[in-house]
Amino acid sequence: MSSFTRELMIVGVLLVGISLVVGAWVSQYDRSDSPRLGMPPEAALDGATVTPAAGGSLRIVTATVQVTREVPATPPIAPTATPAPRLQVTVIATEAPAGTTQAPAIPTQPSAPTQVIPAAVSGDFSGRWRIVDTITSGSGTGQSFSFDVSLQQTGNRITGGNAGIHIDGTVSGQTATVTYTQPALGHTGGFTWTLVSAARAEGTFTSSLPNSGSSILQRLP
After folding, report:
1. Could you give the CA distance from residue 156 to residue 174 in angstroms, rounded to a whole number?
2. What is the domain-level CATH number for residue 185?
3. 48 and 63 in contact (C-beta within 8 Å)?
4. Fewer beta carbons within 10 Å, N or C terminal of the chain?
5. Residue-number span of the structural domain to which 49 is assigned
């Protein structure tokens, strides 16, 4: 082997050694986003020997360095949460038009109570009475005499008397206006009585004798 051939072999071995050193240094400071040099496997390097070709020439076998870049993994996209529908309530306030005023309520005055005028009530002259007459004018002035009668009243009609006198007349309110007859004596006349209580009536009488005077009714038990 000539000296030139030995020198070529030595140069080839040095180049391979330098390539290995540079690859180790680059791999030590490699980052995730930096290009990585793809080194051939160790077996390929071992097989890459400097073999002289036939005819005395030296062939240098070199390895192809593949440069690869690691692409960072894309983070998964989190699903976007759909917001729940929100109920929106709108309150509309109604205002009276400007310049519009409400008329004040007019107080109503209580109406005056209706005055009920009672109808004229007829006095009750029914029952047993004692008549006491006192002559104040005419024949027998100053004399008094009395007699008992029984009266019946139906509505405003009044009748009654006793065996010697017959009474017939009407009642207006508390006053009775009647006429009388005494058939046995042939006398006639009239009475006017006004009730002053449930048991007493006061009035006047007239007679055909002729005389007149006061007359009082007193209710008998």
Report:
1. 10
2. 2.40.160.90
3. yes
4. C
5. 3-68
> Is-above-0.85 flag for pTM?
no
- Note whether residue 113 is domain-resident: no
Tokens at 215, concatenated:
């007359």
* The total number of residues written for the chain in this structure: 221
Q: From 177, 49, 83, select the one nearest 125 (Cα to Cα).
A: 177
Q: Tens place of pLDDT for every residue, the chain, 221 residues?
A: 567 777 777 877 788 778 787 777 766 655 544 444 444 444 444 444 444 444 444 454 444 445 455 545 555 555 555 555 565 555 454 555 555 555 555 656 656 555 544 445 579 999 999 999 999 999 999 999 999 999 999 999 999 999 999 999 999 999 999 999 999 999 999 999 999 999 999 999 999 999 999 999 999 99
Domain boundary residue, one of 51, 68, 85: 68
- Considering the domain boundaries, does residue 78 fall inside one? no
Report the chain's C-alpha Rg in angstroms: 78
Domain count across the chain:
2
